[in-house]
Structures are given as C-alpha cells and as structure tokens.
C-alpha cells in the first residue's frame, strides 16, 4: 500500500515534510509489530541539496570575485567594497521575494545563482571610476571627487541595469505551466538587479567615502592591467588606422556567429539532478496483470543489484483515483539513490543510467525510459507526454500508423544524442455488449442512463467507453 501527501498551496514544502516525519514516527509506534510506514520518495532531500548547492555557489562565487577584483583593481579596500555587492543584492532580493510572497524554490534560487556575476558589474564600474577621480584630482576633497565620479556615470549605469531587467520582460508574459516555471527565475534576477542598482548608486559611493583612502604621492600600478594594455593599445591603433578592414572582420564574425545558432544545441529546461530516478517500463499492450507483476519484480531485482540504489518501488497500471490513466502494461519504478560519495559502479549519474540500461535491456518486448520524478511530471504538464521529444502521427488505419511509426523510429535512431527511443504501444478498443430488458428496467424505476452509469462504475469509470445497447 502506498500513500501520497498533498501539500496546500503556498505552504513551505520543507516544513510540511518535517511535520509529516514527526507524525510518522508517532504512527509507527502505534502500529502492530512488523508493520511500519517507510518513505520511498522525499522532496526534502532535493530541497536540502538545492540550498546546499546555492550556498556553496555563493561562497565560491564570492571568493572568486574577490580574488579577481584584487588582481585587477590592485587595491584591497576597493575590492572588498565591490565584493560586498553580492551579499547586499542577495539581501535585497530575499526581502523583495518575501514581500511579493515568492518562495525560495529551485527556479528562484537558480535565478540568484546565475546572476552573481551581474550583481557586481555596476559596482565595479562605480568604484573604479571613483578611484580614478581620486587619483586624478588629489587636490579636491574626497567627498567632492566621489560626488563628481558618481554623477558622471550614474545615469548610463541606471539605464544599463534597466536594459538587463528589460531582457526578462518576455518571461513575465508567459502563461500556464511555462509561466509558473520561469517567472520565479525572472523575478529573482530582477530583484537582484534592483539591489545592484541600489548598491552601485547609493551604498558603494558611501563606503568609498568612509573607507577608501589613497596614499599621498603613490600612484596605483597594476602589472596585469599593464600587460593587457600593452596588447590592447597597439590593436586599437591598428583598428583605427584600418577601420574598413576591422569592420569587415567584425561583419564576418557576426555572420559566423549567426550561422552557428543553427548547429548549436538547445534545451527548453535545464536538467536538475534530483537525486533519484524514474524508470518507465512499457510492456506489450496485451500483457496480463500477473505477468506484468512478474516482469516488474524481475526488473526491480535487477535494479536493486546496483550498490548505488537504496530502494526501488514499482507501480503498475493506475491508482484507484485514476490520476494517471495507464494500463497494466505501464510500470513506473521509483529508484532512490544513495549519496554520491557512496557510489562504486559509476562516478556520474549518466554513467549509472547507462549501466542500468545495459542491465535491463535484455527483457524481451519491454521498452525503457530513464528520467526523474519532477522532470517527468514537468514533461507531462508541458506537452502531455512522458518524454522530452515526441512525434505524433495522425490517421485512421492503425497498421499504417504503426508502420510509419517504426520507420520514423529507425530514422531517428541514427540521430546523435537520442536515447530511450520507442514507439508507443497502442491497444485495441474493448467493446462490451449488454442485452437489456426494458420492462425489467422500468419495473425498478431506472432508465438506460442509470444502467450505463452503474456499468461504468462497476467496470472502472472511464474504462467503460463504449456500452452497446442491444
């Protein structure tokens, strides 16, 4: 017996799961000996891993940014002021997320992670310009030099950040599932850019006035910048003297880059390692329930042999509620994996999937698809299918459709990068012929519609699609 916990909208997933675990401990104490509730899919692990990854990325990004700034700016104080933009922008983003009731989910945290570099761009320009003014106008007061430097680049910097925010405006227009998936990312990036604007225009000049000091008579020299200037200045002079040749080279590079767009790979939604697998085994459409259970047990045993696998739970057909209208030929196996530091068969998930695919491909007549739980649900919500790419063929003759489907499969099998390619099993319609006695029906105060409704309930709801009247 399996159970699924449904969370209310706008509730915190991690907190809900923690409260459920506390109740499960209490329930297990009251259950008979030998009976217990064991979880086989827990989203809190994904939440913890995502938070850990984001925190780790922020720490690494902060350290890397600080190192590069020290090397390129050549001044520790200005580098620290610039690096302070990252925690400040994160704070502003989280405050705005809380105010707008946007949760810290995978997409919003991912948006903050990818915008780390953009958080410091404006502050770098502001601090560098302030430092330049302080060096060139040493006779002026520090506050006067900072004010002139900030006013000089304040307006172009403001509009530059607005342009970055405007890039995400099309994302805000998305509707349906696409909007729910990508709007949190756009909001998170926009909020971080608002923090970047505040940091560059308000906080950074104030910190420079409080902390930034230049030693008298000392001019800043940076050997790294000097090296690149030695390369850049001659190239710039050559481009100015031969401007038509430079423009021709730039045009050729532009055309080349546009041509590369057609050969570059693309992906609608980046794949996130969820720490689990969802193996879909499609058996012949005419298979019986007993045989399906037998084959599923063999597949489950084969997957359990991998030391990386913690547990495997198989679900055949559909549940009583009919949320997933699948036949008994469909078998979904939830594979829970151990932490990667305990893996011995493979070092990456792709290698583990390849090893599992080789292990189970020997089952005759069974087609396998390896995916992840959330990834599969997203594919179903977006396109209504259980795969990332699907080819739909329409027609009236099932034999012709199947033949064309096999030809398309053979053609697509030669495409580089294609995995788990299969033609969907198509089962014939089942017709139930029922002889009805109208006199007996009328005697019990019923009509044809009542009998059909009772038949649908008895057969299994939507499975009773055609009931023929004699």
**Largest sheet, spatial ordering of strands:** 2-3-1-4
| Topology-level CATH name of the largest domain | Multidrug efflux transporter AcrB transmembrane fold
Give me the strand/helix succession. HHHHHHHHHHHEHEEHEHHEHHE
Largest sheet: 4 strands, antiparallel
Low-confidence stretches: 427-448, 450-470
Structure explained in plain terms:
The protein has five domains: 1-35, no CATH class; 45-220, Multidrug efflux transporter AcrB transmembrane domain (Multidrug efflux transporter AcrB transmembrane fold); 223-266; 276-412, Multidrug efflux transporter AcrB pore domain (Alpha-Beta Plaits, 2-Layer Sandwich); 432-469, no CATH class. Helix 2 packs parallel to helix 5 (106-114), helix 2 packs parallel to helix 6 and helix 3 (76-83) packs antiparallel against helix 9 (176-211). It contains 17 helices and six strands. It has helices spanning 13-30, 43-73, 76-83, 85-99, 106-114, 116-136, 142-166, 169-172, 176-211, 223-241, 243-260, 289-304, 349-360, 373-383, 398-412, 438-443, 448-459; strands at residues 276-282, 309-316, 330-337, 367-371, 432-434, 467-469. The strands form two sheets. It has a four-stranded antiparallel β-sheet with strand order 2-3-1-4. Strands 5-6 form a two-stranded parallel sheet. 59% of the residues lie in helices and 7% in strands. It has 470 residues and is of the alpha+beta class.
């Amino acid at each position: 017996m399996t159970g699924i916990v449904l969370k209310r909208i706008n509730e915190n997933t991690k907190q809900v799961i923690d409260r459920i675990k506390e109740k499960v401990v209490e329930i297990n104490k009251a259950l008979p000996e030998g009976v217990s509730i064991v979880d086989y899919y827990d989203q809190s692990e994904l939440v913890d891993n995502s938070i850990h990854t984001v925190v780790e990325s922020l720490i690494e990004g902060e350290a890397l940014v600080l190192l590069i700034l020290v090397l390129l700016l050549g001044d520790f104080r200005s580098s620290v002021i610039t690096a302070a933009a990252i925690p400040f922008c994160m704070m502003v983003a989280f405050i705005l997320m809380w105010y707008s009731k946007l949760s810290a989910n995978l997409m919003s945290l991912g948006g903050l992670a990818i915008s780390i570099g953009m958080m410091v761009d404006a502050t770098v320009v502001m601090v560098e310009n302030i430092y330049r003014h302080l060096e060139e106008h040493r006779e002026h007061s520090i506050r006067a030099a900072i004010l002139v430097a900030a006013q000089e680049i304040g307006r172009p910097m403001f509009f530059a950040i607005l342009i970055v925010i405007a890039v995400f405006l099309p994302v805000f227009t998305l509707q349906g599932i696409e909007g729910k998936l990508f709007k949190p990312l756009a909001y998170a990036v926009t909020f971080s850019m608002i923090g970047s604007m505040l940091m560059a225009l308000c906080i950074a000049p104030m910190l420079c006035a409080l902390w930034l000091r230049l030693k008298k008579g000392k001019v800043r020299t940076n050997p790294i910048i000097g090296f690149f200037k030695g390369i850049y200045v001659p190239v710039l002079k050559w481009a100015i003297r031969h401007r038509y040749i430079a423009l021709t080279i730039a045009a050729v590079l532009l055309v080349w880059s546009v041509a590369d767009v057609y050969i570059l790979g693309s992906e609608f939604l980046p794949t996130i390692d969820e720490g689990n697998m969802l193996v879909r085994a499609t058996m012949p459409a005419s298979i019986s329930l007993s045989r399906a259970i037998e084959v599923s047990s063999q597949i489950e045993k084969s997957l359990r042999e991998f030391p990386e696998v913690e547990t495997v739970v198989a679900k055949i057909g559909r549940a009583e509620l009919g949320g997933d209208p699948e036949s008994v030929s469909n078998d979904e196996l939830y594979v829970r994996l151990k932490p990667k530091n305990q893996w011995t068969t493979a070092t990456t998930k792709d290698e583990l999937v390849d090893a599992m695919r080789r292990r189970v491909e020997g089952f005759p007549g069974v087609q396998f698809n390896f995916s992840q739980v959330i990834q599969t649900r997203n594919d179903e919500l977006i396109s209504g299918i259980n795969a990332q790419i699907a080819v739909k063929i329409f027609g009236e003759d099932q034999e012709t459709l199947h033949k064309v489907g096999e030809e398309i499969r053979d053609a697509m099998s030669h495409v580089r990068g294609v995995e788990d390619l299969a033609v969907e099993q198509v089962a014939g319609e089942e017709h139930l012929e029922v002889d009805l006695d109208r006199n007996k029906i009328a005697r019990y105060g019923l009509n044809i519609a009542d009998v059909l409704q009772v038949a649908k309930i008895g057969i299994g709801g939507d499975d009773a699609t055609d009931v023929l009247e004699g």
